[in-house]
Specification:
Length: 359
């Protein structure tokens, strides 16, 4: 079992690295094919799709992982009905967001299939993480990253980049969900065989609100981050220059890839670990509880320090691999973004701990 567990971790690590590699290649192709306009347009597209996914999923993945970890203590059909309520709610908010944005582009409703499919994908991925099958969750993330690369690689006209990425995203998500449903049917464990659907009651709505509560922090931080990046590009382009906006994008994009790698490790390993750590506090005396809390704090500070080294060492390599050695790295800009993204790792660690504490 230990050998199999080690193999699973190795596969997960490989898939996480591949996800980052696809992200690197996506930006490299956008920059090499369309120069400054390409990297700006790609950044806008990625932020917009992220906003779509935040509305569609309600950012409940952290809450779902915690809920699935304790699946034995709750009734499965009640959770399924609560999730269906949230699915409709996410579909409503996502469609509303797409409708308001249709004022600015005539193809915005192309994202509707993504709104329909992304929530089920989040449920599947959360279940994989809770079951300790991180390699399957990492596979889903890797496939999503691959879809961005394929959409960019097969784009010859910058105006087609958005639709190509949307189509590739939809195709990958559809195939992933279809494959999982086929697996359930073959194994004869399709959830509809377990219970007959009935109308939701107030307990189901209460459970839905409880899951949304877990996602509020992620939703607000995600909305703030992606909206701020969109506004920042508009401000820099209009009041400074397209070149400076592109330069800041060149510094942030490698940092975002490195951060996504770090947060994937936090999501797949640290979060389930800290949940089990908090569960183990039940029945412990004050002295034992304090020891566990100190160990968790020490772990967070150690990971923060390692992330600082990680960003400092990897950023120049990723920057030059993506944008070429002819582009010099400004020490001030690099130091500033390394510091900011190290703080974001620390924030993700403490956020995971607070969620595990059910607070």
């Amino acid at each position: 079992m230990n050998f199999i567990g080690q193999i699973d971790k190795i596969i997960t690590g490989i898939l996480i690295i591949l996800s980052s590699l696809f992200a690197l290649l996506t930006t490299k192709f956008a920059f090499s094919s369309f120069d400054n306009e390409g990297i700006i347009e790609l950044g806008n597209i990625l932020n917009f799709i992220a906003l779509i996914y935040i509305f569609a999923s309600l950012s409940i993945e952290s809450g779902l992982v915690r809920k699935f970890v304790s699946i034995e203590s709750i009734h499965f059909k009640d959770l399924a009905i609560s999730l269906f309520i949230l699915y409709l709610l996410g579909l409503f908010f996502g469609t509303l967001f797409a409708y308001f944005n249709s004022l600015f582009s005539n193809y915005i409703f192309k994202v509707i299939p993504l709104l329909i499919l992304y929530f089920p994908l989040i449920v599947i991925r959360s279940n994989f993480i809770a079951q300790g099958r991180q390699y399957l969750a990492a596979l889903i993330t890797c496939l999503l990253s691959l879809s961005y690369f394929l959409g960019t690689y097969f784009t010859s006209d910058l105006s087609d980049l958005f639709l190509n990425i949307i189509f590739a995203n939809y195709l990958i998500i559809f195939c992933a969900i279809s494959s999982y449903l086929i697996y359930l049917i073959i194994k004869k464990i399709l959830i509809f065989e377990r219970f007959h659907f009935f109308l939701p009651n107030k307990d189901h709505f209460k459970e839905s609100l409880n899951l949304v509560r877990y996602g509020l922090h992620s939703s607000f931080s995600g909305l703030q981050e992606n909206t701020a990046m969109l506004i920042r590009r508009i401000f820099l382009i209009n009041y400074i220059s397209l070149e400076f906006s592109s330069l800041m994008e060149m510094y942030q994009r490698p940092m975002i890839w490195l951060l996504s790698l770090a947060t994937a490790v936090i999501s797949y390993y640290f979060y389930p670990f800290i949940i089990n750590s908090e569960i183990s506090l039940a029945g412990k005396n004050t002295s034992e509880s304090n020891q566990i809390i100190k160990k968790n704090l020490n772990l967070i500070f150690k990971i923060t320090f390692l992330s600082l080294i990680y960003f400092s060492f990897c950023f120049p390599i990723i920057f030059w691999l993506t944008f070429g050695y002819i582009n010099n790295i400004n020490f001030f800009y690099a130091s500033f973004w390394i510091f900011i993204f190290t703080l974001r790792v620390t924030a993700a660690l403490f956020s995971s701990w607070m969620l595990a504490k059910n607070k």
